[in-house]
Design a protein that fits this description.
The protein has 273 residues and is mainly alpha-helical. The chain has nine helices and no strands. The protein is elongated.
């Protein structure tokens, strides 16, 4: 069984702390050392410094120290090694996430923002949340969290009978190669919400492609397509808000452009006035 790095580090830390506490208690009881002297002796022993200024004088104390050396030194080395590995892994993970956010930015530039505009135009309940989505430079984490809660509770009501699904089908077909290239990126495994969004988009594309015509469909089929469209719409809104927060925190100049292209703002204009 392969344990994760975080799990291994926690195990080593737990064992090391247990050994230190147990060693201190044992030395206090057996060698009659003060708490601080016992702690000091345990640390210099486990760290392999071994000044020799304090040493066990009883047989039981020597046996205890042998156990501490055999177990504690290994755990100490394990903690150090796994801590270094964790820091390196965390740095690499941040770099991967940075690249992934660049990919998400390209997605919204090429397709995501346009899709949101097309879909939100047919959202009969959008008026209830539109003001919450007018992201500005003054927003903090509190405003983003509030907006995220509103989005999660928002009831998506897009109806495939009123949405121009033929237009959406054309748009998705034009960008199918682009979306496929995104989905094939191995870094997507790092993101918990963007991959489901792409999968939902591909499913919707396949559903639209599979029909010979997109008009005069049975009511049940329109309802089915409405469910697929609303799934994409919900995931797209949440991902857009998450990406806006990322830009606000990391790239103010990109955030400024994205804010002026807000698909929920009827007065949005890329022209700076």
């Amino acid at each position: 069984m392969i344990f994760s790095l975080t799990y291994r580090l926690r195990v080593y830390l737990t064992l090391l702390i247990s050994i230190i506490i147990g060693g201190i208690i044992g030395l206090v009881l057996i060698e009659h050392l003060s708490f601080f002297d016992a702690f000091y002796f345990i640390i210099v022993t486990i760290a392999t410094v071994g000044y020799g200024d304090i040493h066990p004088v009883t047989t039981a104390g020597k046996i205890l120290v042998i156990v501490i050396i055999l177990t504690g030194v290994g755990c100490f080395v394990g903690v150090v090694a796994n801590s270094v590995e964790y820091m390196i892994d965390e740095k690499e993970r941040k770099l991967r996430l940075e690249k992934l956010n660049m990919i998400i930015g390209i997605f919204f530039s090429e397709a995501g923002t346009t899709l949101l505009k097309k879909m939100s135009a047919h959202d009969s309940n959008l008026g209830e949340i539109r003001n919450v989505l007018l992201v500005s430079n003054n927003w903090s984490d509190v405003e983003f969290s509030h907006a995220a809660d509103i989005l999660k509770a928002h009831v998506c009501t897009l109806d495939s009978r009123t949405v121009l699904i033929s237009d959406m089908h054309t748009f998705l077909m034009e960008h199918k190669g682009f979306l496929l290239a995104l989905l094939e990126n191995p870094q997507l495994i790092e993101h918990d919400s963007f991959t489901p969004l792409l999968q939902a988009l591909f499913h919707l594309t396949e559903e639209l492609m599979a029909r010979e015509k997109l008009t005069d469909l049975p009511p049940a089929d329109y309802a089915h397509l409405s469910g697929d469209i609303n799934r994409v719409y919900r995931l797209l809104m949440i991902e857009w808000l998450t990406y806006m927060k990322y830009l606000k925190q990391n790239y103010p100049y990109l955030f400024s452009l994205a804010m002026r292209q807000n698909p929920f703002d009827t007065n949005a204009s890329v022209i700076v006035s």
